[in-house]
## 1
Amino acid sequence: MRLYAPPSRHLETRGLAWKPSPDHYTKRMYHIGFHLGAIAYGVHIVVFLLCLHALFKQRRRRPCSTRALLAYVSFMFICGTLSNVFNECISEFAFISAPHATYYLSHQNQFQPRWYLPVYVLGVVPSWMQDGLLLYRFLLIFGFKWYLLPLPLLLFLASIISSSIILAQLANPTFEIWRNTIDLALCYWSSTTALTVLLTASSSRARLPPPR
């Protein structure tokens, strides 16, 4: 008597449905990215609490600036919190509710999910404010020497323009300007990253003591 029989062709065919799809690697990378974003949000909470502590200590000496900075850090924290909430909604839909909807994880398609627009706004608007604050700090450190402004200002405007076009595309999927010719997302992230590195490195260099 045979105790084991090989699976039939019907079972082998059914087993093909359980094999990973070609975009399995992409989904895995998105899944890892969502978890890394949660770690970054934890860092955001710590930085926010440290800022609150520092502002609380100076509230009597500088009441006006303390209120302004408190509003700034609170706005940034609220945007980060809401962005994390919407990212969790995207993760839940993409990996649980509709795991086979591959297009849901793509930012460049004609079937934009309703969560991407608020996530993008909550990420880009604080980014503009961060870059603007870095630009102001850069001018403050160098004594408002305006001849140093053109290159950082050009990068700042490039990031605003490219991100605004992406925002228009997300709000209106039929908005086709440069969709297939220019990677606007790459333009935005490269310009804002270059601006941050340039201003931070320049400001750090200015604070170094003069060589002996």
## 2
Amino acid sequence: MTAANSAQAISTNHSSTVPIYSRLLGNLWRSPGRFFRSASRWFSGAYEWESRAAYDLAQWFPPQDQAILSSICGTGHRTIDRMTAWLAAQAPPTGCLVDIGSQGTYSAAWMAMGAMRHPSPLTVVSIGEEIDRVWQVFARQAESAHLRSIVDQTFSDVYSPVVAPLSNSLSSPSPIPVSRILDRLRLQNIHPLAACSSFRDPISMLSIHSSRSSHELMTLLHKFVPHVAPSGWIAWTGIQGKRGLRRQAIIHQEMAAHKDCTHVITIRSLILYRRQAN
């Protein structure tokens, strides 16, 4: 080997080890923050809620099928998806489930999965501009999602009782009950601020994505929360990043005015309140 080749080999080995050291140092730098977040979630009870939701959901919606639904563009974090379905299943049967998501998200699909657990399945009201087009896209994606090999990340989630490396069903029909999900939906193809002025139905679960402006969030809160039934859920989703921290402070401040609503828990990007029973 010539001196030039030796130098090139040394340079190559050195450059290949630099990213490894960089990742190692980065992980060490982030370790205290990760430990603090894990500890806070443990003591807040978030782990217990996540574990309970994952276990119950796996009994009626297998983890490999959850992976297929979560693979559809527009669904959120798997833990929040599961919590949404689980909360919908636990909601009082006295009203409908209302989802005001960000454009192109399908959290209402998970609410519909929970709604079908009720003896008389609840209606899921999905509100947003061009919401009918959004759900047409969902139907096309859901019908073909099972035709792809989808890696199930369940193995990295300590709460799921089942490990399924691949959720691939090439020779079987879609495991996602697309028609049943769509049957549960009632679409309001208008801006949420326009919808809230005429909305009168009792609400068993209200889910609002925090991507909207502060003014919109507060208006939706004051218009929709009074319709939430006793023991009904109020879920604020998408609370993350620096903007999310500001949203979180605003939400807690405004919700404090509703004395009959209690903060239950905060899980990742979800803030959960519940209206007190009569």
## 3
Amino acid sequence: MNGNSTKYDNLTRIRGIGRVKQQWLRESLNIYTFRDLANLSINEIDSRLEAEGQSISKSEIAGWIEQARELVAAELSAQQVENSPTEETELSQQVVQLAEAEPENNLLPATEAGEWKSFASFVVEFQSRQLEGQVEEQRTKVRYVEADQSKIWSGIEREQIPTWMLDRLSHEMQGLSEADICVKANPVNLEIVQIKAVQPPQTGISMVVEKASRLFPRIIKSGEPFMLEVSLQLAEANFGQRQVTYRTQVYARNRSLGVTTHLGDTKPITLLQGQLSYTTLLPATILHRPGMYRLQFVSSIQGVPATPNCFEVPLLQVV
């Protein structure tokens, strides 16, 4: 840890850490920087809390550590631009290590830990205002916190709130179940070999990743469209008389919020007899919220038995 360091990071940038918790982390655990926190385990913090008679859920501690790792990764990514090629390689390796260090691996399974973990939260507000010379006006506002989505009704709404919330949950859980295929799939006939990202107006500059679990070397600007090109390789291309097509689904998971967004699908493309290499383009898409994202590309074949193939980019920085 960094007890003697003169550097102090503002730990309150981490969601869930206020001034009181920041002071406690500094005094009790000598945590002064994001890197100090990123290098700790959940059990180290939990043990100190227990010794002092305090209680914070392990899932909340895991969130602190993951956010700290993302902030450190962002700092290292920014330094890559200013360093020599050798230093840049070393920094890239550090970023990869931080990106792949998932804090949830340190958590006990829910059945053993015996604690509830929130995966969705909504804030319901009944608001009113008084305009000069007019009667009081009322409205109802609901916000889906994790996805930063809101809905407003005039007056006091009673019937549509549950339906709206359940619709948000249904859409989100469907996206998660589809994205989780990356964990289960083993490549059989199809392999994603390269991902290329291009964001206008710099159409001549592209970011290329040629191996899963590697990082994009540059940033993406939030609120601006960008395109993704997917290159695939088949192990064999003997389909007989059958018509075989493939498509790729793309998901982006905000690592801080834990929210998965379906960025879209490529158009189905017919595979040709004897042709092994293909390239397809995802229509322009936008990530509106700045942050650190994990990208998942799931390619599947229709028309013959085949296991979907997944390509993962663990860290994409959106500013």
## 4
Amino acid sequence: MGSNLGSRYRWKNYHSVAHVTGTGGMQKHIESCGKISKNRIEQKEAKITQYFNSSENKSKDLSIKQKNKITNALAEFVVLDGRSFETLNGLGFINLIECVLTTGRTLLESSNMNANDLIADSRTISRNIDKMYEKRKSQLITLCKSIKSFVITVDFWSERSYELENQTSLNIRKLVNSILEEFGLSLCLSSYIVSDNENKMRCAFNDVKRRGCSDHYLNKIPEKTFTDEKNIELQEPQKMFHLIKEIVEHVRRTHRQNKLTKKLQTFSKTRLNGAFCIFYVFNEIFEEIPQVLNTKHLLSYSLIDNPRECTGFRLPTY
């Protein structure tokens, strides 16, 4: 009972003291702060909130015209440098832009903008590619009106936009003519065409002055030398070619390329300079090859005298 009375007394006493000196003791401080705040407003002193990265500040600093200009530049970066759209969202790219902005702030007036405020989303930039294409195409059409001569390249190994039902000579010529017409150009009797020596290409341009590709002519020299078995005089180089071809196929098939400093090239008739490529790389790492061969292919390797004799007449073309 005595304990309860003591507790009540202490609580009542504390409450009365707190009422007088506790919360009330801050009154002078509050009044003083009010006077200081009024003085700051009158002096227009800068507030800390103006340094916050707020959306309100962003909209004032960056106009729509500037934003579109940056988006176009980023789209050109993707196209010209062959980068993916996701590159623009990468941490490394963002860090690069941040570094440029930081440097710019030291040279120009202060700004609270960061890289993410400038870079549009990758999907927005990808949609901008079509607009850029149409713009550049119209510029090219205007340029073509003033040119006196032009050169075109027709290569169906890399042509992905071919939508005709087959690759006959008529369809090839139809495709070429339609593309030229888009730019206000056309072929005439005085036009010169350079293409490979395939029959359908020769037939497609038989009404103009066609010239065979010199690279394709030169490519036939080593190809015939090493693959034409009817020529008895070339049996020795052909034998060496088949030995090298067998060794290369073995190394590629057994996945032992990682032990070599260069990747061996297999022979392909459809690859320009294919016969030379297989010799050239084989010669470059000739001393390394035995370490990846088994007993059978080591014997074949020992029969190869000097592959350098077959690679001294022409530089590789890739």
